[in-house]
Predict the structure.
Amino acid sequence: MRSEKVTFDGEAGELAARLDLPTGAPLTYALFAHCFTCSKDVFAAARVSSALAGLGIATLRFDFTGLGQSDGEFENTNFTSNITDLVHAANYLKENHAAPSLLIGHSLGGAAVLAAAEQIPEAKAVATIGAPFDPAHAGQHFVDQHEKIRAEGTVEVDIGGRPFKVSRQFLEDIEDQQQAERIKKLRKALLVFHAPLDDVVGINNATNIFLAAKHPKSFITLDKADHLLSNRADAAYVADVISSWAKRYIPDLTEKTATTKLKAGEGETLVSETGAGKFLQQVESNGHALLADEPFSVGGLNRGPSPYDLLVSALGACTSMTIRMYADRKKWPLEHVAVRLKHSKIHAEDCADCESKDGKIDLITREIEISGDLTGEQRERLMEIADMCPVHKTLHSEVKITTELA
């Protein structure tokens, strides 16, 4: 599993997000909405998203406007703007990967995905975790300040030990939501998670959501879990159940597109198509798995290094290892090695010391950074050793490749 930082445009500026991805090609994509005044990195969001990625479901979690690393001011946001942010997030996935087929929301984020679901037609299933039935529930965190907020327009309140500016329009917006009608018209499979001991959002909220919804709907109790899913095992359980439950409603959640069924033998490297996008490949070598792809600019999904990226990576890794081995054997005070590489094509006529004079040739530029209390002679010798790395020698020697039909 790997996690990528991404950004996309919202109504009030750039929204910061993380896309948690499985090792192989995603079975499907999910969108996760965090709790009130939380961020994409809160326990529930990070742990559930990570666990889902481990099960093959790529999951996007993002900071709502005015929270975390996203642009905008919290005092200018409301529940309606959260819905808009969710739609922007879904559009980002649709334009760059695939539209989310699964929506997941924690706490007020759960209420938000229920409200936004109608505007995300590709979503086939919705799961809520500790969600309030009525968005107005968010106002209970500062109920003693409601009168002052209505009178003054904007007031700084304490929510979870942190100061937030809350405006009159926020109160009016959360009190004007027709959530029961939205849930009644959901027309998507619904899974409701709630902990009986949740002291932030009472269990009666789950009851009201479940009763308002039409089938197919399911309810799962989280037993002794707390509202934030602080116990990692609770988050893993939620992810496992969501993955199993959603298979009934999301056809893509099958293993046929997750990873190749072929296995590399001992001493082999196996490269095979994943079935996602035009170019995405899964690479299995010595028990390690990685992806190879092409960038968006040439029609790829940009899910992994390109073949040439992998080629120069091999040279860079070999170079650094060879320098390290030599310095350690000599007991030289080498502290750190870094190798920066770039591949390009140049016209042969522009290369003064190349044998070829026609067409284009491959150019690999390699910049080596060596740090440590080394003498000038030692540094010079290590640069000579760099050219002795096995991969470097292979690239300069005659290579024979035999190919046969399996």
Remarks:
- The first strand starts at residue 2 and ends at 10.
